[in-house]
Here is the input.
Amino acid sequence: MKINSISPLKSKYLKIIDTIAIKPKRLYFIGKLPAERRPSVAIVGTRKPTAYGKEVTYKIAGDLARHGIIIVSGLALGVDAIAHRAALDAGGITLAVLANGVDYIYPATNQNLADDIIKHGGAIISEYEPGVEARDFQFLERNRIVSGLSDAVIVTEAAIRSGTMATVAHALEQGREVFVVPGNITSPLSAGCNKLIKQGAHPIISADDVLEIIAPDLLRPQTLLPLGSNPLQSKIIELLQSGIRDGDELQVKSQAAASEFSQAITLMEISGTIRSLGGNQWALR
Here is the structure.
C-alpha cells in the first residue's frame, strides 16, 4: 500500500497537533485521513482487559462511532484493539497511531485489524519513518500523538502503573478532557481508573457523558430500548438490561426450555440485538 507523508499543518484534521509539546514535523500514514476536523476521542487502557473492560470498551467505542466520533487508539492488544474493532463494527472511522514505521504492523497479530481500518476509510499513522522498528521508549512518545489528535481521552480499564497513565499525563498537558470508566474497587485493573476519578477526571457510564461535553450537537433524542420479536426475546432483553450476562443464568431466569432458549439467542444474535462476549456470556448491542 502507498505510504503518504504530510506536515500536520497542511491538514485541517491534523492541525490540532500543533498545540502539543514536541510537535512532529511530519506524519506518515497509510489509508485516508479525514478531510476536515471532526470530533475525535482516544480510547486507551490495559492490554489484558477483564470481561468487564472488554464489554465497556466495545460499547462506549461503538456508541461514540455511531454518533460520528472518530476513534483514535494505538493498535495495541487489549483495549486499543477492541476500541478499533468496535468503531468498525459500528460503521465508523478509526485511526491507529503506531510506535514504529507504518510499513509493518506491530503487533503482527493485529495485521487483519489494520487492514480493516484502512479498508473502511481510516488510517494507520506514525511519526516514525518507514523501516523504524518499535522500541520501548517510542511507545511512550507515541502516546502524546494519540492524545494530541483527540479532543478527549477515555480510559476504560487500567492499572495504576501503565502506559495508559502516560497518555493521560499528555492529555492533561495538552488541555484535553479526560474521561474514566469507574471500576471494581477490588480489581487491580480498575485501580488506575478509580484513582484518576479521585483526582478529578470525568467519570462516565455511557457515550452520552462524553458527547455532552465535547460534541453536544451530536446528541440525538433518546431512542427506545430494543424490544424482542416475541415474549421470550423480550424477557431475555429485560434480563440483560438488569446486568445478567451468563447464558445458563439467562435460560433459568427466562424459564425457557434449553432448545427454545438456544433458538431465541441465535436469532437475536443474527438480528444484531445481542452479541456474544465469549464463554457463554452475552450483552446487548
